[in-house]
Each structure stands twice: as structure tokens, then as C-alpha cells.
């Protein structure tokens, strides 16, 4: 469980104590009367979030923003103002404030604002933990919290232990099949050997045999006078990853099958048998069963390649990972392009969740790279992500008038129909929000206390 530290900086004692009372059961809370006191304490209890009054004695809140940011650039700051001075608020936001609240403070509204801010902190902390793990172990890793990804990683741990069992990875383009192959290699007994990747779709048919198996000097017109080691030989005592294996023609399939069954091969132009020990991992985004039915792929090779099969879910099948990945790429490209974007706007987050990812993680990665590179504001907007055309109304497509069942002559019980809709969407919202009532209420665009009341009422029915 991630621990969070919140600073409350306000010269009014009742406000400090009131906010502290609200949050001290869930977080580490430190209260300060002045910005100077908070800055002096900063090194001992580094905060994740600061609730900062704009009008403070001594150093003003608008000035303190820069001081806090110089101590910790990614600290989130929510401004507290006694009046909604738009000009002053905008100035604070430009200096890096995350959000603002207006006195008198409504605790329910503050709870939601703080929860949203700490969700951003949580994602950042998890991303850095993943990065540190990757550096420590020098291993490829998936970014994801979904059950599907956890199941795949657990399965990889088991199947990687064999040094030679063939593995077939099946998944749409951009789902991370090559990353899975790399992970299997690094976790297998072959990790000290090479990992050789072959894009079967990129090698011309006439060159495939010589690329895979190598050739002797002078084996054919244009061949090097020194001969050439093939990719299979280069992968000896390691792993050979055949990406897009469904693009091999039938002749190449037959030669690959022969090698896989015996571990033996001949270089082009040679009569000397070569023997290597290598694990074959293959991947495809094609329907090999359909190709077998059309006599485009050998059934015996399919069974040989797929002793172990790993089906990679699309990004659309693990929606809960979308935002985590987006945050990860935001941090990655912030660093690459020397940017300091603080996050993704709420509207953009909503649209990312609605988007249908035909290119999966690769498409999201490319989208985030372009957005971070070209963004001019402090956070990514729908315009930066080129998502302006996607509106929340798409969710309601299934509720258009012509999609409703017709009203029967005998009529309907509208109260029951409404109750059934409430039951369904409240359940869906809680599932999507992983049980977090505040987030679930936002998904249904209703206030938290209304959501809680309705949820309790539905449970009693």
C-alpha cells in the first residue's frame, strides 16, 4: 500500500485543524501556519500534495509555489483562496499549481479534488517503482495492473524455465509480443546466450533460407566470398524469435519444421551438417487456424511452434491499464524531450478511456510521444492527443431511439425499467472504478453523496 504525505499551509487555525481532521486517518498530515515553516520542514517529511493558502503572512502562496517546486518538481499543489480571483488563480496555475478550492471549504468537494490529485501521485509512484525494478533486474517488463497482465506474467515465469520448449505468442499488432519474447528469454536458462530477432515479413522469399541458415562462400551468384553465418546459428545456446511467423511461405515453413524436429540444418551450398541448441519463440497477429484451413500454413508446423501458446490481450480488453500506460509514456517523453508536463486533463482522460485502440499499446505510445512533443500547455488536452472528435456521447450510441425495444400494446413498468438501468450502470461504474465510490460517481456524473445514497438504496431493494 502506498503512503501519502499531505501538507496543509494556512494561517487560519480552524481551517488547518478541520482539513487535518478529515484526512489524518488515511494520510500523514503536517500542518503549517506559514510557507516558511513548511519549507523548513520539507527535508524531513517530503510531501506528495500541498494544500496552500494564497494569502499567507510573510511569503505569499503564489511565491511559495516556486519554492516548493524547486525542492520537489513533481509535488502537487492545490491552492486555497478566500475569493475566486481568477487572475490570481490563473497566475498560480501557470506557476505549476494542480488545482484550487475556494473558501468556505466544502469537505466533500475537497475530498474529490484530493483523491484525483493522489491518483496522479499513485500512478507516478507505481511507474517509478516499475522503472526501478526494470533497472535492478535488467529485465523487460509490462506496464499494467489488469488481471490479464498479471496472469500472463505469472504464466511466463513458469514456461520460461525450459531452455528449449517452443512458444507461440498470439496477439494483435502493437500488443507487446516482442516484449513477451524478450521477457521469456531473460527469465530462461538461455539468458546468457543471444536473443536473435527475425522479422519474417521483412525478409524477401528468395533470401530467407540463406538468412536463416547461412551460406558457404560462392554458394550462389552475389554471395560473399567469406560465406555467412545464419541467424539460427547466431542464436546457438540462446533464443531465436521469429516475429510474424505467419508470413513465411510454405517452402520456408517446411525447412523450419525440419530444423525444429532435428535441431540440424545445412548452410546453403554446404554438405556439412550443423547442429545448434536454441529455443524457438514465434509470434503472429494472423489467424493460423484459418490459414491452415486455406492450406496457407502447415498444420504440423503450427503444432510444433505452439507447444506452449500465449494469447496476448488487446489494450481494449484491459482498459484499466490505459491510463497507467499513458502516464508512463508521459513521464518517458517528458524526460526525452526535456518537457515538464504535469499530467493529462480530465477531459482527455475520459476520451482516452472511450477510444478504440486498433493499434493497441504501440498506438497509445505513438500518440503520447506526438502529444508530449507538440504540447504547449502544462497538461495534455484532447487537442494535444488529437481526440477532439471523440465525445462522451459515443457511450450512449446503444441507447438511441431506434435501438430501444418498441413499447408493447400492454405498456411497461417504467419504474422497474429505470431501477434495472440504475442497477446495471451503478454496478458497471463500481467495477470500472475498482470499488472506489468517488471515481464511480464521476463516471456517472453525479455527486458522491448522491451516488452513495443511491448505491445503498439499490442494495436494499
In short, what is this structure?
The strands form 5 sheets. The protein has a 5-stranded parallel β-sheet, with helices on both faces. A 5-stranded parallel β-sheet has the order 7-10-13-6-14. With about 450 residues, the protein is an alpha/beta fold. The protein has 18 helices and 16 strands.
Question: Overview of this structure, please?
Answer:
With 461 residues, the protein is an alpha/beta fold. The protein folds into 4 domains: 5-131, Rossmann fold; 147-313, 3-Layer(aba) Sandwich (Rossmann fold), CATH 3.40.50; 316-393, Helicase, Ruva Protein, domain 3, CATH 1.10.8; 405-460, Homeodomain-like (Arc Repressor Mutant, subunit A, Orthogonal Bundle). The protein is built from 18 helices and 16 strands. It has helices spanning 13-23, 35-41, 61-71, 86-94, 107-137, 147-159, 177-187, 205-213, 231-234, 250-262, 288-293, 299-305, 322-336, 346-354, 360-374, 414-432, 437-443, 448-460; strands spanning 5-9, 28-32, 49-53, 76-81, 99-102, 167-170, 195-199, 214-215, 228-229, 239-243, 264-266, 273-275, 279-284, 308-311, 343-344, 379-380. A 5-stranded parallel beta sheet has the order 2-1-3-4-5, sandwiched between helices. The chain has a 5-stranded parallel beta sheet with strand order 7-10-13-6-14. Strands 8-9 form a two-stranded antiparallel sheet. Helix 10 crosses helix 12. The chain is elongated and about 90 Å long.
